[in-house]
Specification:
Radius of gyration: 18 Å
Shape: globular
Mean pLDDT: 92
Number of helices: 5
Distance between the termini: 55 Å
Structural class: alpha+beta
Helix content: 25-40%
Low-confidence stretches: 165-170
CATH superfamily: Gcn5-related N-acetyltransferase (GNAT)
CATH architecture: 3-Layer(aba) Sandwich
CATH topology: Aminopeptidase
């Protein structure tokens, strides 16, 4: 078997879309809207500021992927690279695909010269993935990711907690 790790190309978009949909369903039970997913993946290829995909190929067939995005740290005067949209096809799992992909990301980050660290987020219940990341030297950075999606503007004095609670009860 011939393994290659490379930057994804436009020809990989159908596989990236398929892998992203599978990852969302497997990890969160979410069915992604293809009308948003397809242009979302395509957008990465039209604007490098959005990130870049790396893929692992076996004999020319993509078996793994990740999306690299960046975050500037003013505190540290350097870049963090975020590893996102990690997926390894079921037949290729538990064979070191992500490990080799991660080592490639490390090498690219070191070569860039201004990257101070790598980060990713993982589902709290995904203990297998957490163990894999820990085995590669990643540690829990003791942050909790919080968000608001979809965005909604609250008026001053309006309680977002009571509004959301009443919306959920309906």
């Amino acid at each position: 078997m011939n393994e290659q790790i490379r930057r994804a190309t436009l020809a990989d978009i159908p596989t990236l879309v398929s892998f992203n949909a599978a990852m969302a369903f497997e990890t969160e039970g979410k069915v992604l809207d293809e009308a948003k997913l397809v242009p979302g993946v395509q957008a990465v290829f039209g604007d490098t500021a959005k990130g870049s995909y790396l893929v692992v190929c076996w004999d020319g067939q993509v078996v793994g992927q990740c999306l690299l995005t960046t975050e500037w740290s003013d505190w540290r005067n350097g870049w963090f690279w975020w590893i996102q949209s990690v997926y390894v096809a079921p037949p290729a799992r538990r064979q070191g695909v992500f490990k080799r992909l991660y080592f490639q990301v490390q090498q690219l980050a070191i070569a860039a010269g201004n990257v101070i660290g790598l980060r990713l987020y993982v589902e709290r219940e995904n203990s297998r993935a957490q163990a894999t990341y820990a085995s590669l030297g990643m540690t829990d950075e003791h942050y909790t990711v919080m968000g608001q999606c979809p965005l909604r503007v609250y008026e001053i004095g309006e309680s977002s907690v009571s509004s959301e609670s009443s919306e959920r009860s309906h």
